[in-house]
Amino acid sequence: MSNMSQEALQRLLQEIQIQEESSRQKILIVKSQLQSKETEVRQLELTLTQCCGLNVENNVYTGVGKMFIKADISDIRTDLQSQIDAGQQNIRKLSSQLQNLEITSHNSKQHIDTILRQNS
Questions:
Q1: Rg (CA), the chain
Q2: Cα separation of 34 and 31, whole Å?
Q3: Could you give the CA distance from residue 93 to residue 88 in angstroms, rounded to a whole number?
Q4: Residue 67: exposed, middle, or buried by beta-carbon count in 10 A (0-12, 13-18, 19+)?
Q5: pLDDT tens figures, 73-88
Q6: Which residue among 34, 42, 77, 103 has its CA within the 20 to 30 Å range from the CA of 2?
Q7: pLDDT tens for each residue of 20-77
Q8: 119: which DSSP letter?
């Protein structure tokens, strides 16, 4: 790399910095999405826990648009569990995406440091 022209080196450094900044921004977005999804899953789990404490004879209603209709408690439990499962799957995907972005950011920082050290 030491025989690269200063101009080419500047462009390379700038590209790496842009990539690193982009990764940092994406990391913040994914962390926010992850936190939101974790909160949603916790709320669903709490609701499911509350529903499991109800008797089958209890009247339970579910929202449909601006209305509420009477629903079977077992259907609501099944729906809540499927929403929890989908949310947990989404959390796993977001966690994987976050890990990949953090690796990209770390690698970009290392490349920047390497370039700066070699040209000092």
A1: 25
A2: 5
A3: 9
A4: exposed
A5: 999 999 999 999 999 9
A6: 103
A7: 888 899 999 999 999 999 999 999 999 999 999 998 889 999 989 999 999 999 999 9
A8: T
Locate all alpha helices (DSSP H) within the chain, ordered by sequence: 6-52, 73-118
Tokens of 41: 């899953």
Tokens of 53: 């404490």
- Residue 39 structure tokens: 């909160």
Q: Has this prediction a pTM greater than 0.90?
A: no
Residue type, 39: T
Are 48 and 87 contacting, i.e. CB atoms less than 8 angstroms apart? no
| Residue 112 contacts residue 20 (beta carbons within 8 Å) | yes
Burial class (CB in 10 A: 0-12, 13-18, 19+), 100: middle
Query: Under DSSP, is residue 53 helix (H, G, I), strand (E, B) or coil?
Result: coil
Cross-strand pairs, 71: 60
| Integer angstrom CA distances of residue 73 from 51, 59, 93, 103 | 7, 8, 30, 45
Whose structure tokens read 């976050």? Answer: 98
